[in-house]
Design goal:
This protein is mainly α and 458 residues long. It folds into 2 domains: 196 residues, no CATH class; 252 residues, no CATH class. Helix 1 runs antiparallel to helix 12, helix 2 runs parallel beside helix 6 and helix 17 runs antiparallel to helix 18. The longest helix is centred in the first third of the chain and has 33 residues. The two termini are 16 Å apart.
Length: 458
């Protein structure tokens, strides 16, 4: 529902705004996300890994986050002229100072969000996400309709963060006190600093495209890529959201029983593969028709990039699951070093591929992420005894069936010229082929998922 609502607002905004509008926001996100990571400092995961977090633990993290975020906002406020000069775009001076308010506002709800996460309050988190998305989306579309361009996108982000923070307070029973003792935060920092460094490097590599494209190719190219990445992320984050909401708490609960842990992890691996491959490869299959129909020819350049990026989107939930596995095992140092090396390779690869254009950069990005799946698998074997053959037997059948279904769909629908008919035919045919192949192969995860939906229908 969250991704569907986001997609509806995204379609309207694509029609009202230009690639340059999206590009200005994309160029600033590397700074905003970096500051947000520093503000959170890995304490959400650190609190989750405590057996029974105390009120003092929550309180220390709460005031630490607010203090750090206030300091970071002042630093970035002062650096705004340098950022605008770096990109040679004076519009970024006031825009950056406005957009950077988001991570400071977010700091007031970080601990409340951690409380909901630890206690698996996913229903409440879902209500928060949907409400925040609707409120911020309506305001963002209204401002874009009034020709306020990129200011509407910035306001949409800030308002989303604000409503999330307020609703986290409504649903979380925990409240801070003025008895401030930072000693619990410093004790947790021994665990969280590794996650902090990991998240910093992750954010740098994730936002490197917007940074490099904005600097060397301008806001148009940054906007074209950013739009393609946005629609890919909508698909992969739908699956990733289902995963991250339960993976670490559930895996942490069974980590004392190695056999049980391995069974749970493999079942998650199968489910993620069962959903992720057909959904993301399917988005890549319909990318051109979809963007032309919803936004017009001005976004056609994003379609080719979207088809390519969806390869990464298909494996991203798998990368996340492996990462969650190392954290739930209390081995945040492995997660840190593995992510650090991977992100460093990505950054170096993007810089080296920059002279060859955006497609070469995206291809390098995908190649490194695919290779790194095998690095994560090595650590899964070391930590939980999951052999490569077992992991491949869980993943490859869904990948192969998805590829076969997409290739057959593409081949059959080639003669269709009407875009609406082509889009609908691809969606229906690919969906039917994938489920049909899964049914003929007697895929256990299909029967389990169907049984769960029928049993829990309202």
């Amino acid at each position: 529902m969250v991704q569907l609502i986001g997609a509806l607002f995204g379609i309207v905004l694509l029609q009202l705004l230009t690639p340059q509008d999206y590009g200005k926001i994309a160029m600033l996100m590397v700074f905003a996300n970096l500051a947000s990571t520093l503000q959170e400092s890995g304490f959400t995961a650190a609190l989750c890994n405590l057996r029974n977090p105390s009120d003092n633990d929550y309180n220390a993290v709460f005031w630490f986050n607010i203090g750090i975020s206030a300091l970071l906002y002042l630093v970035l406020y002062a650096c705004a002229p340098l950022i605008a000069r770096f990109y040679n775009d004076p519009d970024l001076l006031p825009l950056s100072r406005y957009l950077f308010l988001g991570f400071f506002i977010s700091s007031w709800g970080t601990v409340q969000r951690a409380y909901l996460f630890i206690h698996l309050m996913n229903r409440e988190s879902c209500i928060i996400a949907i409400t925040s998305l609707i409120v911020s989306g309506l305001v963002g579309v209204g401002m874009a309709w009034c020709k306020m361009a990129y200011w509407g996108l910035a306001t949409q982000q800030i308002l989303f963060i604000t409503v999330v923070a307020l609703m986290n307070w409504c649903y979380s029973p925990w409240r801070p006190s003025l008895h401030i003792d930072f000693r619990p935060a410093w004790r947790m920092f021994g665990f969280s600093w590794k996650l902090l460094l990991t998240n910093i490097v992750n954010n740098l590599s994730s936002n490197a495209f917007g940074f490099l494209l904005g600097k060397f190719y301008g806001d148009y190219s940054a906007g074209v890529y950013g739009t393609a990445r946005k629609w890919n992320d909508m698909g992969s984050n739908t699956i990733n959201g289902m995963l991250t909401g339960v993976a670490q708490p559930v895996l942490s609960q069974v980590r004392e029983d190695s056999d049980r842990y391995r069974q749970v992890f493999r079942k998650m691996l199968r489910f993620v593969s069962f959903v992720s491959f057909p959904c993301l490869l399917g988005i890549g299959l319909i990318a051109r028709e979809f963007l032309l129909l919803i936004a017009g020819p001005k976004w056609e350049e994003s379609a080719g990039l979207l088809s390519l990026i969806c390869i990464y989107g298909a494996i991203f939930p798998l990368l996340t699951l492996y990462s969650q596995m190392t954290i739930s095992q209390g081995r945040s140092q492995i997660n840190m070093w593995c992510t650090l090396v991977q992100s460093t390779l990505i950054l170096v690869g993007l810089v080296l591929m920059r002279p060859y254009g955006v497609y070469a950069m995206v291809g390098c990005f995908i190649f490194i992420n695919v290779v790194w799946l095998f690095v994560w698998q090595y650590f899964a074997w070391r930590l939980i005894g999951l052999r490569l053959f077992s992991a491949l037997s869980d993943v490859l059948p869904f990948l192969l069936v998805s590829i076969i279904a997409m290739v057959i769909t593409w081949w059959i629908t080639r003669p269709i010229e009407n875009l609406w008919l082509l889009l609908c035919s691809k969606v229906v045919l690919a969906f039917a082929l994938y489920l049909g192949f899964m049914w003929m192969c007697r895929a256990r995860i299909l029967r389990e998922s169907w049984g769960y939906l029928i049993h829990h229908k309202v």
